[in-house]
Specification:
This protein is of the alpha/beta class. Helices cover 34% and strands 15% of the residues.
Length: 148
């Protein structure tokens, strides 16, 4: 995740979840890859966080993301701030209730992806969630690359 200065004029996309330990971590990893592959680092910035962060990324998430070349073992879930949400052009929630962050306070467009939580999922279900997130992130960046 990158942190920008106040004079940063990049498009900001936030991936928000309650624990920031599963879906939003997967989405952020795929988004970071999209930024690099599409050479959009100067145009788009990624923010991720949770409203009630867990202590670590879920083990099953680390496992299934490792299968596709991402090492999330050292990532630490973090709390998303009101200021970060205010700076977002797009806030993507993962299908979890982000009750502590009122959507009315979001400056940008909100999209809820309605994804199942991989925390207690079987490995097979976690793989399916990962594949859905990868597909949704790619589609989002198809859209954003034309506006960035």
């Amino acid at each position: 995740m990158t942190v920008a200065s106040a004079d940063d004029d990049r498009l900001v996309v936030g991936f928000v979840c309650v624990q920031n330990a599963g879906r939003s971590q997967m989405a952020t990893a795929f988004a970071e890859r999209e930024l690099a592959e599409r050479d959009l680092e100067d145009d788009i910035r990624i923010v991720t966080g949770g409203t009630d962060p867990a202590e670590h990324v879920h083990d099953v998430v680390v496992d299934v993301m490792g299968d596709v070349g991402f090492d999330l073992a050292d990532r630490v879930p973090r709390e998303v701030t009101f200021e970060e949400i205010q700076a977002c052009d797009y806030v993507i929630t993962m299908g979890c209730a982000a009750e502590d962050v009122c959507p009315a306070s979001w400056a940008g467009e909100n999209r809820d992806w309605g994804l199942d939580d991989p925390d207690d999922a079987t490995r097979e279900d976690a793989v399916a969630i990962r594949e859905e997130i990868e597909s949704r992130v790619a589609a989002l960046f198809d859209e954003l690359s034309t506006t960035a």
